[in-house]
Amino acid sequence: MLVLAHAIDQLNRAVALVVRWLALVMVLVQFCIVIGRYVFGYNSIAAQESVLYMHATLFMLGAGFTLLVDKHVRVDVFFAKLSDTSKRRVDIFGHLFLLIPSMTALLYWSWPSVRNSWKILEGPISVGGIEAVFLLKSLIPAFCILVLLQSLSILVRMFHERTGE
């Protein structure tokens, strides 16, 4: 099981190594959009949507890595004061009863929309935009799967640390 957990960790690390560059590209594209608009009077809806697509990709595909390195949102006001055993219990409860069910529900309820979007190759959000909303919607199940896998990896490692196997 530890081998599987390590493989999941490596998957999320690899995804993060790729999508992290979108932050830089996103800033550069946004800079070009601003220069184009205010210096040259040129505007591109597709370029503006590309920033949205990059931001969505960076956030959605980077979420599993964020969970891996424990930089996700949590209420540290209470959590920081807990003992290690209590922290472990809170984490296990959070994974089993909050994160895994919510990701499973999101995956289940979003899938018909994603499937239909691919069926019709859903077009741009705005006239003149990127003709790939189906790719944007595909980030939802990818997000759910990466976060679910990382949650399982964390639970496996917690179990292994606890039992010492």
Which helices and strands appear, and what pairs or packs with what?
Blueprint: H1 2-19, H2 21-38, H3 45-68, H4 76-79, H5 84-120, H6 133-163
Task: Describe this structure as you would to a colleague.
It is a multi-pass membrane protein. The complex comprises the extracytoplasmic solute receptor protein and the two transmembrane proteins. Keywords: Cell inner membrane, Cell membrane, Membrane, Transmembrane, Transmembrane helix, Transport. It is found in: Cell inner membrane. InterPro entries: DctQ, TRAP_DctQ. The protein is mostly helical. The chain has one domain. The protein is built from six helices and no strands. It starts with a helix and ends with a helix. The model has no long low-confidence stretch (mean pLDDT 95).
Q: What's the oligomerization state?
A: single chain
Please summarize the sheet with the most strands: none
Q: Compute the CA-based radius of gyration.
A: 20 Å
Total discrete domains: 1
Percentage of residues assigned to helices: over 70%
- Give the SSE order as H and E letters: HHHHHH
Q: Which term fits the overall shape?
A: elongated
Alpha carbon gap, first and last residue = 10 Å
Strand content: under 5%
Poorly predicted residue ranges = none
* Number of distinct helices: 6
Transmembrane segments: 21-40, 52-69, 90-111
Protein name: TRAP transporter small permease protein
Family: Belongs to the TRAP transporter small permease family.
Subcellular location: Cell inner membrane
